[in-house]
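Protein folding task:
====================
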Amino acid sequence: MSQELPAPIPRLTVITLGVSDIRASIAFYDSLGFARRLKVTGEAVAFYDTGGPVLGLFPWDQLAADAKLPDQPRPTTFCGITLAWNCRTREEVDAVLAFALDKGARLLKPAHETDYGGYSGYFADPDGHPWEVVVAPGIEVGEDRRVHLAE
């Protein structure tokens, strides 16, 4: 009889995006105001403090190779994942969308009232990774920049 191992504590620590041009992506995320950390990595990889899980940027082909996945064909459509920038107010949603577009993002969907009582819009980063900018009931952004969920 084997002894059952204790379950590890689940955690999401880093979200890494594969990017086509690491320099351009670093410039984009710097311009959005995310704080870059571990700059000693130069342009090999970039890490950003987001107030929650770390955002990583890594060259697309190297990230695919590291995960033992094919680099080609690169998807040209939705890949089943979005990133979110939760806000405190509808006005903040509008301001974040305008700011991101000013920094080179592409508007995917203008801000609008949602069917669940929130307010949301989408932009894409230089590699097309979709970001939802949203204020939603039951999800609050604290002074610590972290998301706090209702029970």
In short: The helical segments are 22-32, 60-66, 90-102. DSSP finds three helices and ten strands in the chain. The chain has two domains: 9-72, 75-151.
